[in-house]
Model the fold of this input.
Amino acid sequence: MARLETFADGVFAIAATLLVLDVRELGHWPSFVAYAVSFMTIGIMWLNHHQLMNQIGQVDRRFMVATLGLLMCIAFVPFPTRLLAERLTHDGARDAALAYGFTLTITAIFFSIVWFYAARGRRLLREDSDPRVVAGISRSYLPGIGMYLTATLVAFASPSASAILYLVIAAVYVFESSIFGGAQSEH
Amino acid sequence: MARLETFADGVFAIAATLLVLDVRELGHWPSFVAYAVSFMTIGIMWLNHHQLMNQIGQVDRRFMVATLGLLMCIAFVPFPTRLLAERLTHDGARDAALAYGFTLTITAIFFSIVWFYAARGRRLLREDSDPRVVAGISRSYLPGIGMYLTATLVAFASPSASAILYLVIAAVYVFESSIFGGAQSEH
Amino acid sequence: MARLETFADGVFAIAATLLVLDVRELGHWPSFVAYAVSFMTIGIMWLNHHQLMNQIGQVDRRFMVATLGLLMCIAFVPFPTRLLAERLTHDGARDAALAYGFTLTITAIFFSIVWFYAARGRRLLREDSDPRVVAGISRSYLPGIGMYLTATLVAFASPSASAILYLVIAAVYVFESSIFGGAQSEH
Amino acid sequence: MARLETFADGVFAIAATLLVLDVRELGHWPSFVAYAVSFMTIGIMWLNHHQLMNQIGQVDRRFMVATLGLLMCIAFVPFPTRLLAERLTHDGARDAALAYGFTLTITAIFFSIVWFYAARGRRLLREDSDPRVVAGISRSYLPGIGMYLTATLVAFASPSASAILYLVIAAVYVFESSIFGGAQSEH
Done:
């Protein structure tokens, strides 16, 4: 289980750090915003993965393969981020906004697959995991899919509005983590 | 031994995450398929390396040098992946398919070198390693070489058929891990 | 907490190692100096983060989100480094020097946010953390912001002088760590 | 000390894996040889660093700063590797061979700085470190500097001969590790 976390941490850290390559090559203001939004989005996803793994007591190969699928999505994020940074103020804004939203929606779906596979019947949970925390995580995952799917569909009407929604969702997650998450601490 | 795993995890994670650079630069459909196939192939190889290391109780320098050779192959995968993504629908498809298959065949051979060096006479195995698990790993490695070698040779007849076989092999490994691997779990 | 450190180590290591991409592409002398200065700056920041985490006994989500903000700055350093390497002897030297200094000033501010959030009322400190070490870290953080802010503002008068100051600050930190930091050791 | 190793492992792994970017962009035979030689060279250096750290019982800031200097060299290796791969069969072969050899000579010098700082008067060694192993490491470091310096100077006479020597040195280290290093094992 430790190695799964090391591997996952590596993918999260590399995907987040590769985002700067777009800023290096593009260097205009949308690339800065895209960098900040995608870095914090991947960062919050890392935080959620960390929180998820805190409840896990054992892993099996299915869980690992599902995690690989999740990481495949995370490592893909630099691609639609670049698309969006490149095209938001040009042609192809709609396709870029759709690609970004589609990637994050699929990522959110994989988060649910990983989590509900582990949590169903407490299959892979730690024996001492707190049922309220488990229920809290379960409740929080489905709205995530809904939010990203909504923001994606908005791209058909307005790619800019869709991009603003991605920023708002990231800000909400950062804000929520900072305000409500302060009370619980871990060693 | 912990550091060998950290180093290996780093190489696996970086090789898998660098694959997105091709999608960023090419951005057409074969690059998406190549990304997914190579990410899952490296991911499954990471899983196999994890499973292999679970049976290891100690390491020596020969084992480490053989592991470096294996990692040299893993870190190389983004190159033939890009070739294949770039050329599958253009000139040079055969060379690209051969390069891809050749890399994965050599990788599979290095997996066998690492494993059989450790397992021969139980040289580096954990004292409590399960002989059935050890025999199972030994049995599963040679067909891997055979499958990749076959898919590589098919490229002489048809590069597209070869590429489809790489996809099928990756899918088989994902499927097999998900279906048959679910029962065993680890802490 | 271990995973926060693994993730942070990953971002520090990748950001530092990506700096070589600029040297690969530019290959003139300012890119070598920029590589050395930025690598050692990120290295010393990693050292400071390590020293900071040594005093931490527990973490909460606010601390983690603040750390993500810090890492977002660290991972951004390759961008202004490239700018500075590219433009120091050309047009746009002022903008490049401002971008570099601005990034490091914000990074220093995030270091203070992370540290003072943890240290205030000893909120997240280890129970056995040494008050003198804690006070020493607190004292050392504000001058860091001041030094980088000063060097940034100097860019309005002379971008070259500003760039030299960044080099001097890095050298001071390396020197200070080597001379005064030798006495304390850790297991 | 654990975090120093994680950070170091990250830099080694990323530097080694980034080497594939040159093959991706150049794709001719010297880039393949350069990839294999540099990957195994970084890999063997990682092995040596691992062996070195095995003897270390505690670290101080000077040791860490010296290690940062060493890692700055390791992370730089992809640059002269690319130079050599690009220019070996073209103009500028001499400069490329000199840059490659100079980088590896400086790296070998930093290895000695790190090691002799730790080993002098057994300053940072583990209490139970074996004096014969310590003496063995001390004896092995200086010839490394000499070999790389010699190969570098040969570039003035013949860049190709110099490049072949780099390959031979890497092969010698791999061979020596495989043949003589097999006996000692670690848990």
Observations:
- Chain D has a mean pLDDT of 91.
- The radius of gyration of chain D is 17 Å.
